[in-house]
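EI: anyone free to look at a 435-residue chain?
SC: sure, send it
EI:
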Amino acid sequence: MDEPAPTLSALEKQMMLDRDKLQSIIEGFIIAYHHGLTKDDTTMLPSYVSRLPTGAETGTYLALDLGGTNLRVAAVTLVGDGKADIEQKKYVIPAELKVGTAEKLFDWVALGVKDLLSCLGVQAENLNDKEMYMAINRGVVMQMGKGFELTGLEGQDIIELLQAAFKRKGIKIHISAIVNDSVGTFVANAYKDQNTIVSVILSTGTNASCICQTASITKHKFPKDSPEYMIVNTEWSIMGNDFLPRTKYDKILDLQSHKPGFQPFEKMVSGLYLGELVRLAMVDYVKNFGLFDGTLPSGLEIPYNFTTKHMSDIGSDKSPEYNVVLKIFKNDYNKSPNLDDRRIVHELVVRFSRRSAQLSAAAIASLVKLQCPDFPAVERDIRVAVDGSLFHRFHKYSSWMNKTFRDIQRIKEDKRTKIVPVEDGGCLGAAITAM
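SC: here you go
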């Protein structure tokens, strides 16, 4: 990459998202949404979830999430009045089950479900009077193509394989829905607040869902008796190539990624990439500005070896000597940087994390505006539900995001349109969708 290294002040100018830049980003997203609704089969995906909960629903429903490392099984008891109790168990997937037969893996999953049921005082074999309903995270379907080398899987329907395992173990469970995290979060918040119109995931990755008129999804031909509205999974992570303002380091990260040009928004925002953006900037500053006396600390040459967790810890450091920076570099990179170097690292961390929060706020504003063209001058209560570790646990992230969202609305305090936090949204929403 021949682009010159920007000084800290030049980088600050590049990354400063003033009102005009934010408005341009909002307009860029809205154009991308319309393209997705009419032409693009990779974005604005219909979820076929067209009925939202009222908050009065009751009953116990199950949710299952199988990732590359863990299995999580949850029982969600809806108690009405928008409230729910969640009982869940998490299991580490044994390595030998990732390379065996699909039948063995799914039998193990079924036993995990049975274990959860027994903790609830439910004997799976005695579910003769009724069948329990379960939703699974879409990641179950996706993960089987990654991280696992199973025989007996090719050409098979994973839902049917899971259903067969439940039958072998004597569990009367019907898998009734496959739910995306952002759709699940939407449904979860709608259970307690019917003013929800947007849901967002800000974690290792990012995604969002919203409500659209079914008739506006013209790339699909829906039957005439289809519901008027539907939750749409935006897949906004893959938007932005033509309108997001990128720095030298965004471009380097993209070129060095497995899929250059793919997921530009996610590469600027999500927890998977933020640490790497700062690492790339530090490497460049070592070479061009003599950071760390011109010698890269041991370990910083390894891609993704400076993490978003490092960033959050550094961002929370209020000491004038930047003691957290010193501690991290001594412990993880065998380096004791001087005070000026620590300051530069701290400033790089703040710039990239703050920009992520500001971009997230602009993207949220664009989704609200898609559904309410008069935004921010709306005359109704609107809720944006947000879940994910970046939002909940990254130092100052939510406050930066909320401030930018208020600036876009030109208000000092939250008014009718509010961002609200959701915990375990995907899990709770999946269970409600199963209902």
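EI: The longest strand covers residues 70-80.
SC: 👍
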